Each structure stands twice: as structure tokens, then as C-alpha cells.
Amino acid sequence: PNSNFPFSSPRATVRKISPNKTSPRNHAIDTISIHCYVGQVTAKQGLEWLAKTSAQASANYIVGCDGSIGQGVDEGDRSWCTSSASNDHRAITIEVASDNAPPYAVTDAAFEALIKLVADICKRNGIKKLLWKGDKSLIGKVDQQNMTVHRWFANKSCPGEYLFSRHGEIANRVNDLLNAPAMD
Fold first, then answer.
1. What band does 7 get if pLDDT is binned at 50, 70 and 90?
2. Which H or E run includes 61?
3. Residue 54, C-beta contacts closer than 8 angstroms, at least 6 positions apart
4. Distance CA 101, CA 9 (A)
5. Helices (H) and strands (E) in the chain — how many of each?
6. Is it the case that residue 138 has pLDDT exceeding 70?
7. Rounded (5°) CA angle 34-75-133
């Protein structure tokens, strides 16, 4: 890990740790949960909101509309993100800046930064392959599916149709990066 940011991705260039977390997490990281942060904000702007005690929410990372990446909760700690303590203890949670209305689209810069961030998280945490079937019954069965979505745990549309419909593509693109020869 980057020595300046313990338990974090070196892709994160801004950091504001939220008080809204449980420390430490009680489960190994084996899942990725991607969310839509409703609003086209930078990572810094999103982190500022999630760092408010009144937010009662947090995420390990936020990807801004400009492709910036910020860290709000160390990977060693559980964020308060999916309305499921059990999921949040095993997942790295990532908020991605999106439009304010359905389908909650994200910018190309945010989408590309998300792919690279997830690949980095998987590499550092020993997740060999990202698996997506869109099947709520597979929650916790990480050998079959290791991506979850907020809508499975709460009456929300998160991550919005734009990202939800692209989870297969996200998994494929991340897996391509995980299988690529190491570059120095």
C-alpha cells in the first residue's frame, strides 16, 4: 500500500476520512460494491459531504465526474454504504459521481477512473477475478459473484440503471487489466 495512505489505493489523490465508519472491518475484502453518488461532483466535493457526521454514510472511495479519486474510509475499516453491515464489512464501496436523474449516467472520465481503481483494489486484495451475474441470491457466494449493489439491501435504485447495466462490462474490463502482463 501507498505509505502516505495506509490501506488505500495509490490512485486516490485526495483523502478525507469520514467519522461514519466501523473500525476495523470484521471480514476479509472479497467484494466490490459500486454506487452512484447523485450529483456531478469532484472526489473532493463528495468526500466533504460524506465526512459530515450528519450524513450517517460513507464510502471507501469516491470517483469524481472529472475522474478524480478520493478516499473516505481506509480499506481496513468498514464504510457505511450499502445499508447492510455484513456486505459493508466484506466490500470495498465506491461512490461514482452521476447525473441527478435516471438513469444516473456517469462521465467517461469517471467510468475509466472507476475501472482502473477497481482493478487496483482487486490486485492489492487478492481478488483474482471480478464476477457479475446480477443475481441477488448469490450475495456472499464470492466464488460465483463478488459484486453487489445497494438496491439489493435497501429500497433504492442505486447504482442507477447506467452503472447497473454496465456491471458485466466493468467486470470484463477489470479482468482484462488483472490478466494483463505487469508493466513497470
1. low
2. strand 61-63
3. none
4. 30
5. 5, 8
6. yes
7. 30
The residue type of 141 is K
Provide the grid cell at 170: 466493468
Phi-psi label, residue 154: left if phi above 0, alpha if psi -120 to 50, beta otherwise: beta
Closest to 139 measured CA to CA, from 87, 95, 79, 80? 87
How far from chain centre, in Å, is Cα 117? 8
**Interatomic CA distance for residues 177 and 174, integer angstroms:** 5
The verdict on pTM exceeding 0.90 is yes
The Cα 74–Cα 20 span in angstroms is: 12
pLDDT at 69 over 50: yes
As a whole number, mean pLDDT of residues 49-62 equals: 94
